[in-house]
UniProtKB/TrEMBL annotation:
GO terms for biological process: protein maturation. InterPro entries: CobW/HypB/UreG_nucleotide-bd, Hyd_mat_HypB, P-loop_NTPase. This is CobW/HypB/UreG nucleotide-binding domain-containing protein. Coiled coil: none annotated. One of its GO terms (molecular function) is zinc ion binding. It comes from Pseudoflavonifractor capillosus ATCC 29799.
Amino acid sequence: MVAGCVLDCTASCKAPGQLGPMLTQADFVVLTKTDMVSQAELEIISWQIGELNPKATLFPVDGLAGYGIDRLAQWLLEQPDNCGSGEDVLRHTMPSGVCSYCVGERRVGGAFQQGVVGKIAFGKEAPVWSA
C-alpha cells in the first residue's frame, strides 16, 4: 500500500534531513503550511526531498483554504489497492523504543524522560538521513 509523510514547512529548511525512513521510504509527501513560507524556502525544501527520495510525489497543501487537497485525493484514489494480501510487511523496522511523552508524560525535563528521547540537532551537527 502507499506510504506517506507529512512535513510542516515552517519547521525548518533542514527538516527533511531529520525525518529518516519516514521520508526516504514514502511514496508521497504532503507539504503543509506552504502559505507561511516564502517561495524560496518551499523550493529548498522540495529540492531536499527530491535528493532524499526522488520517487516521492510532492503535494503542497493549505489545509485551511483546501489548496492542493483535490490533487492529493485524486492521486490516492488512482493508487492500486493492495491491502489484505496476507503478506503485508513494514517497509522499515519499527522504532526500538517509545519516548515518555508518547505514552502520556506531561512534565518536561531530563528527569522525566524515559526510552528513546533526544533533541533534534540543527546546523552542522545535524545528521543527514539517506535511503
